[in-house]
């Protein structure tokens, strides 16, 4: 039975999971959830995720929400196929991947997400991007990226010299970020920039990026 | 050789790690980091944790940071020892992971900001932002409603056993109940209250509370 992923192709969290599915060459069906109609905040969707957020993965009897948990599940279930994203054969490499997945979750995401919100979502509510919020979070993101610049001067990818879920988790939000005036934060840091160009050119992500057209809808 | 845990025993994120080590009966040594003196922002410590946060661990020559990565590592390393904190099958582990993500993304920031405004800033002699505190409380109310619904169907967040998903909540809820005067968020919800009573009475957590001097 194929996996069903409930979400939206332009959503970064849905894209996170789809990129992982493509890397693992796992078949799935994307079941569109109409965000603009608020479908994710009502039943029946709320029965799948009581927090009213996409995506949700259904695999037979198993139903999961939280894009990072879903991605880890997919990477583990399909560990023998496609690209190795979790280093399951090395306990210590797997631990390093866990560290940098948490860094994305706890350091990177909280700084980049408000910037994406201001440029892409605020206009939908009839507001102009709030420059104070953008500046504050750009400052925080810059400090995080300084740490990344140092790490990536020593290893090719975040958890080591191998591509992993830790790098993948950064793709979808950073893709939108690079369309904003804040993209210099990445471009000005040579190792971060090289890393970004490498990971965003992977075929699995290219498949997903082509549908990430939120910005274009705004113009 | 013991695991060295760098951080104050009274801070939430080191507590998350220490509880896991206690549950798994892993010997550890707490290396105190003085947050008031900004030890965590000094060059020595930044070599351990480049974001300048506690905790970090050192286990022989293996080093890690990020508390949720550390607990996942030790729960897997000592899977067969003590309680199974991860789940038995791939599916069970995914559900544990799901609720760990809920704690990290739907719960933690609200608790952190609430405690910062109501407890930490006043302790430092500064004014907390009461509007922000109220907003966090209202959002946290909605999150606890979801927990109440979930826990009406299972004894613990990921199912019928205590796992990392429950453990990860312990330090934050303690701050809410004991320090921030927000105990009603828990006590007014029958299933959340019963769950909190159960998990906070586990011997490992009680040992930690003693170590922390509460």
TrEMBL record, chain A:
It holds the Pfam family GST_N. Residues 90-219 form the GST C-terminal domain. It is found in: Cytoplasm, Cytosol. CDD domains: GST_C_Phi (cd03187), GST_N_Phi (cd03053). Its EC number is 2.5.1.18. It is an enzyme of class 2 (transferase). Signal peptide: none annotated. InterPro entries: Glutathione-S-Trfase_C-like, Glutathione-S-Trfase_C_sf, Glutathione_S-Trfase, Glutathione_S-Trfase_N, GST_C, GST_Phi_C, Thioredoxin-like_sf. Residues 1-82 form the GST N-terminal domain. It catalyses: RX + glutathione = an S-substituted glutathione + a halide anion + H(+). GO terms for cellular component: cytosol. GO terms for molecular function: glutathione binding; glutathione transferase activity. One of its GO terms (biological process) is glutathione metabolic process. Keywords: Cytoplasm, Detoxification, Transferase. Belongs to the GST superfamily. Phi family. This is glutathione transferase. It comes from Hibiscus syriacus. The lineage of its organism: Eukaryota, Viridiplantae, Streptophyta, Embryophyta, Tracheophyta.
From TrEMBL, chain B:
Keywords: Cytoplasm, Detoxification, Transferase. Pfam families: GST_C, GST_N. GO terms for cellular component: cytosol. The keyword Signal does not apply. Transmembrane segments: none annotated. Gene3D superfamilies: 1.20.1050.10, Glutaredoxin. InterPro entries: Glutathione-S-Trfase_C-like, Glutathione-S-Trfase_C_sf, Glutathione_S-Trfase, Glutathione_S-Trfase_N, GST_C, GST_Phi_C, Thioredoxin-like_sf. One of its GO terms (biological process) is glutathione metabolic process. Residues 1-82 form the GST N-terminal domain. One of its GO terms (molecular function) is glutathione transferase activity. This is glutathione transferase. It comes from Hibiscus syriacus.
